[in-house]
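Researcher: Here's the sequence for the chain we discussed earlier.
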Amino acid sequence: MSETIIIGDEGPTSEVANNDVLSTSRFFPTEVYSIAKPKFLEDATEVFDRYIKKTKKERPNKNKLYPVTMTENLQTENKLSEMMYYILNTTNNILSSQGYNMELYNVVLSEFWGQEHDMYSGHEEHVHTHGTQIAGFYFLDVPEDSSKVIIHDPRYGKRIIDLVESNPENVTLVSTAINFTPKKGEFMFMNGWLPHSFTRHGNKKPLKFIHFNVSCRFKNAV
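Model: Thanks. This is the structure I predict for it:
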């Protein structure tokens, strides 16, 4: 049995409430999308490894704090054309399902590059700017103890006044961050404004994935 305090014209009074149920409405949702697509693994891995090798030869990374290798843009690779089409089509469907009028826009793959994270590499919390509507990853190799993908609460106003969680291990409406374990051959898609990061990689065998950003342009734009 609980007691509810009612504020009335005469001041605060109390009454016993057994069956009070608040009418609840939820707005401004945050969604993260994932799907297994191993069909792209073979071609994507071949292209990835070739570009990583080239990058290490031409631009070796000497940053010991962030031992990561990032390739140049992979969009010119015909082997990945089907994969790129899938990303664009999926992005269009995601944005349409969220309520955007996608009949007005063309989706454009603005960035599409490989990342190889060696042991202890990671990526701090960030968002994607410059018109990115959907950001995502396609995971090529995920050894044991790989980095986790962390999705952070985008409500910065809430962060300022947050209370202590009753159990931070539970996913609730007040969670400040959610951990995702990446899987080989899996896509992840999220809105570009959603803050995300990677924890430090814990295996001598590198974590490999392709990162992509998708933007939108008006169909009638010059």
